[in-house]
Amino acid sequence: MSRRATSGGEERRAVTIRDVAAHAGVSVATVSRILSGTYPSAPATRGKVMRAVRELDYVANANARGLAGASNRSVAIIVNSVVSPHYAHVAQGVQTQAALEGKLCIVGTTGGDPERELATVQLMRQEHAECVILVGNVVNNDAYRERMAEYARALAAAGSQLVLCGRPTLGPDVPALVIEYDNTGGAYAITSHLLSAGHRRILFLGRHEGWTTPGSRVAGYRNALADFGVPHDPGLEIDGTMERSEGYRMIRRRLAAGPPDFTAVFAGNDLIAAGARQALREHGLRIPDDISMVGFDDLPTAADIDLTTVHVPHEELGRTAVRMALRRGSGEAGMTEHVMLGTHIVVRDSVRVLRRPS
Amino acid sequence: MSRRATSGGEERRAVTIRDVAAHAGVSVATVSRILSGTYPSAPATRGKVMRAVRELDYVANANARGLAGASNRSVAIIVNSVVSPHYAHVAQGVQTQAALEGKLCIVGTTGGDPERELATVQLMRQEHAECVILVGNVVNNDAYRERMAEYARALAAAGSQLVLCGRPTLGPDVPALVIEYDNTGGAYAITSHLLSAGHRRILFLGRHEGWTTPGSRVAGYRNALADFGVPHDPGLEIDGTMERSEGYRMIRRRLAAGPPDFTAVFAGNDLIAAGARQALREHGLRIPDDISMVGFDDLPTAADIDLTTVHVPHEELGRTAVRMALRRGSGEAGMTEHVMLGTHIVVRDSVRVLRRPS
């Protein structure tokens, strides 16, 4: 029934704010003011406008600022969860740029389930989203690449565009845009920061074999150790995922096995750092007096706990993803298909300078 | 062009995972494993399955777990921004419950712009979302109530359902469900906690005239002062919005005007508390030694800064909103149209017990 109702609505010309203004006998600006509810208005005027809105079924036929009614009018981002601050900030960047471009922004959430991801891509495709942005950490195996190639082709066939954000490229034959940020470079820089302060036993928290994001961060950590001539001890790399509770768990377990055999911690992200810090404090260990710590991401939590960390341009990733997709759609020349944004250290108060070992 | 392509797709029977399995000559479980990419698989098998996926255009006709293809298959939540942790956690609850019910979850973001809100409601309605959940803090004036009443009627006419979350009821003639949580009770309890510890000069940060959420929190603060016989000093209520930067600004400004004339701070939410704490520290004031502080929301940041606060059941709000809407749609009896969830204090280490004034 609702499908038929919508089809009927598509055949009719959409009701615009001008129709409402004409019906109510007021200006377009007055209708806009009254609908937005942000300015005072006379009850009689509001009554006329709201009657016109009802009689024309304006909400059901919304055409605000040309947003609805156009066939390509929204940009979509698909994430595992909006509770992850990195995803939330990328989504915020997508929303900001979408608003500047006069598009709506919709966020699909999958809970990390590939079947829900598939169904969500399909939903966005049916909805004629102008682009579909997929974000974050993956296992970059053949099955993943084939799934993404299918999405890219299905979206391209529907006039849409796949954008991968914070993920590796798929190869030249797949119609996907890619925007990354420099995980390896950031991890190299922050590990060098600890090494320069005299730390040699640096515990890495959050290794996760096969996954792209922790994999790149571990690679930067190992590169820095090698360049400083510090032997790599695999026993200092602790497996775990990217959550706060995991940081707590990894440190609790390590300290249960014996006193700290490290002077510094490189937490795979700021959430891990927050959880690890809590576990250290419960063992009476203070940062930076007893143990130094650095993180990755520069989320608001890093400011709360005075954490030296790596700044990731979360919102700029989202904004650039939208700009790349829409410029490409407009046939604008000179757009690249692969962008890498830089990262840099933010120094706060979580690293102690040690005496150089004699 | 894309619209026509979709209409054609709707007339054909949707391709299912069973079709892919039959075409590839493997089991449904094998197709599912290979598409999910979470298990190892033989290259030859994967090749057969991905060829079947391509030949049947499976992604473009996805029908995973019956999610796509059904006319009512998604639940929608509309928020100002997913960067606000409260909204993000409510959205997480919506996603969790949607997954349990076999529905997709889509999040619309508006940046607080009523025209984008209107267009997003329209988009969700066209997409046949089974319910549309609007969250949070509003100015509860006639224009707002009329706008919501229009949404409620337009959605009901399309077989959908408006749910207001953390907002007041609209009245019995409007087809909207309402789920709230107890802002006033939580604020009363946490103010009483400060008063019981001997605090009499309690600075409230984040009053915002006319808005529902800060309004209810200020009301609880004033009720507690009255019940403890403490005179109400309007000079202790500071205007501001619910962001971290606002907490920082409000304390900076207050301390620039003179030394603290308060012993405790009630931050209107945990983000304000985090910003206020930073400003206090920059003035050399420690929590709780010099100034006590409490917040509201119990977000992860509260644990990072050892903040005593009021727990809000963010995810339960989202889950209950979905349950209410779907049970109602199924015609199940005994469902109420208005639910109020409780709040409670979480005691950490941010309040000092003062000597009673002699």
Topology:
2 copies of one chain form a homodimer.
Chain A lengths: L1 H10 L5 H8 L3 H9 L6 H13 L18 E6 L5 H16 L3 E6 L4 H13 L4 E5 L6 H16 L4 E4 L10 E6 L1 H14 L5 E6 L4 H16 L9 E3 L4 H13 L7 E4 L2 H13 L9 E3 L5 H5 L4 E3 L2 H16 L8 E4 L2 E3 L12
Helix pairs in contact in A: 2-3, 2-4, 5-13, 8-9, 10-11
CATH homologous superfamily name of the largest domain in chain A?
Response regulator
* N-to-C CA distance of chain A: 81 Å
The count of helical stretches of chain A stands at: 13
Annotation, overall tally of beta strands of chain A: 12
Pair with the most extensive interface? A-B, 88 and 88 residues
Helix content of chain A: 40-55%
Instruction: Report the structural category of chain A.
Output: alpha/beta
Tell the overall outline of chain A: elongated
Largest sheet of chain A: 6 strands, parallel
Total domains of chain A: 3
Query: Roughly what fraction of the amino acids of chain A lie in strands?
Result: 5-15%
* Secondary-structure element order of chain A, N to C: HHHHEHEHEHEEHEHEHEHEHEHEE
What would you note in describing this structure?
Helices cover 45% and strands 15% of the residues of chain A. Chain A contains 13 helices and twelve strands. In chain A, α7 links the parallel β3 and β4 (162-165). In chain A, α5 packs across α13, α8 (183-196) packs parallel to α9 (212-227) and α10 (244-256) runs parallel beside α11 (270-282). Chains A and B meet through α1, α3, α4, α5 and β2 of A and α1, α3, α4, α5 and β2 of B. β2 (104-109) of chain A pairs antiparallel with β2 (104-109) of chain B, so a sheet runs across the interface.
